[in-house]
Amino acid sequence: MIIYLGADHRGFYLKEKIKDFLKQSGYEVADKGNSVYDETDDYPDFAAPAAREVAADPGVRRGILFCGSGVGVDIVANKFNGIRSVLGINPDQVYASRHDDDANILSLPADFIDFEGAKKMVGVFLQTPFSEEESDKRRRDKIRDIEEGLSGK
User: Helices then strands (H, E): number in the chain?
Assistant: First the structure.
């Protein structure tokens, strides 16, 4: 599994710490930027490339995005078909998003969490499987049908 990362200046330092944590944990990481701290950058420039990569194989690939509130990158990611991005608030909520909703991108609010909290949420996000229960699959498929209807597929 490849983990695609993206962050603006407000999420940059947390992204760098999580990137190191992921590599030390044996994950393959693809950093879609920013590669340097730049206080004038914009979160869509990094969230979109990461989400695009996850959308290319949304059942297998995962993404973790960072900005100050987490909301901006979450909104951008959810514009892509096949993406189910969740704004991470706490490990229990992240668990539910993976288990029940098959979330494939975790958006983190760098201004509101610390590294230890982020590590916990990332661990839960990457280790929790989708439930595969009929009701959860049905709901996920309804989301896919909405996306396809909106995109004309």
Answer: 6, 5
| CATH dotted code for 2-151 | 3.40.1400.10
- Cα pseudo-dihedral 29, 129, 84, 25, rounded to 10: -20
The rounded distance, in Å, linking the Cα atoms of 83 and 103 is 7
The pLDDT assigned to 147 comes to 86
* pLDDT at res. 152: 67
Q: Report d(CA 150, CA 153) in Å as an integer.
A: 8
Which stretches in the chain have pLDDT values below 50?
none
Span 20-47, pLDDT tens digits: 999 999 999 999 999 999 999 999 999 9
Nearest-5° Cα angle at 6, 4 to 11: 135
pLDDT for position 148: 85
Alpha-carbon distances of 59 from 55, 92, 119, 135, 139, rounded to whole Å: 9, 22, 22, 18, 15
Spell out the domain ranges in the chain: 2-151
Contact 110, 93 (CB under 8 A): no
